[in-house]
Design goal:
CATH superfamily: dinb family like domain
Radius of gyration: 16 Å
CATH class: Mainly Alpha
Strand content: under 5%
Structural class: mainly alpha
Helix content: 55-70%
Number of helices: 7
CATH topology: Four Helix Bundle (Hemerythrin (Met), subunit A)
Distance between the termini: 44 Å
Length: 159
């Protein structure tokens, strides 16, 4: 994977994510009904947490991050939800934009070798590919939630 290819995947993935969020509209982002009690706002905060973790990894050039990585996935997701559920939508959206921009800037500082060689990141297992780690915690994470948001939108539009 080249940096140029990765940047394009990041850009196009984010564009699709932003288009879907625009379709939801801010007026509906705090309505629960996704993944149980989660709202679109909660999903945005969840995705942002993962992107923030990637920014830290890229800046440190090391497999570093929150202690929550040590939790089972459901517990980690619940912790992120609890941390963010009382936050104002405007704060969540502002943070999402800022963190994504930080991610884009951190990616810009990478080389093709950085994206492909786990030895470039302290503590990264030898069988992990850095760009795949980034993918799964950024633009590759969006589709995990986009289908649920679309289904939720279809249900809301029918009401």
């Amino acid at each position: 994977m080249t940096k140029t290819e990765f940047r394009e995947l990041l850009r196009s993935g984010r564009a699709a994510w932003e288009a879907l969020l625009a379709e939801v509209g801010e007026a509906r982002m705090t309505q629960p009904g996704l993944a149980g009690a989660w709202s679109v706002k909660d999903i945005i905060a969840h995705v942002t947490w993962f992107e923030r973790e990637m920014v830290g990894m890229l800046r440190a050039k090391a497999l570093v991050g929150s202690e929550w990585w040590g939790l089972p996935q459901d517990e980690r997701n619940a912790a992120v939800f609890e941390q963010n559920r009382g936050r104002a939508l405007a704060d969540v959206l502002s943070e999402a934009r800022a963190v994504h921009q930080e991610l884009v800037e951190a990616v810009e500082a990478l080389s093709d070798d950085d994206l492909n060689d786990p030895r470039r990141f302290a503590g990264m297992p030898a069988d992990w590919i850095p760009w795949e780690v980034l993918d799964g915690n950024s633009f590759g994470h969006y589709p995990d939630h986009m289908s649920a948001i679309r289904a939720w939108l279809q249900g809301k539009d029918q009401m």
